[in-house]
Fold:
Amino acid sequence: MKFYLFWAVLGLLCVVVMLGGNPVMDILRFDRLAIEQGQIWRLFTAHISHLSYAHAGMNLAALALTAYVADQRRTALEWSLCWVWLMGTTGLGLYLLAPDLYYYVGLSGALHGGLIAAIMTSPYYSARIRTLVVLVIVGKILWEQSPFYDDLANLALIGGRVESRAHLFGGIAGLIWGATMVLRVRISKHRAEQSVE
Structure:
């Protein structure tokens, strides 16, 4: 039960911010000029703000999927650190590597990374399934960076264009986190095996 509490709180934050409307979103969204003036929190809080209820709903559904596949043995603190990393890295990536971007909101960038990290470290699926899912997500992200991807395809549904670079930075952050956790588990197992011998 404690495991799901973390995910519920993250989802609830998104709902509360959405219910707060534009005044709350204006304080929390990625705003390049405000960040340059020292409002660093926006690199993190932009991810719990959304353009519309449909935008928030789609991301909350994906968040529920991420919670479903995630390793329940990990503590709320571990998942909190993971999401701080995902949000911060995605926000910083947008700030440093997308200089044309002035405004951004949405969980989807960090969420791509969250799903990658969750499936990479999940004990509930075989290595083959985990690898396949990660490859599918990475393939989707790479396709979104291509000239064939239409970032305005969901404009009417979500109320704005999809910032596919956020998916890229979030995905990279998720791969790093997931690989670090997998390596940590392998090192722990190796040490345990050595101590038995």
Remarks:
- The longest strand covers residues 30-31.
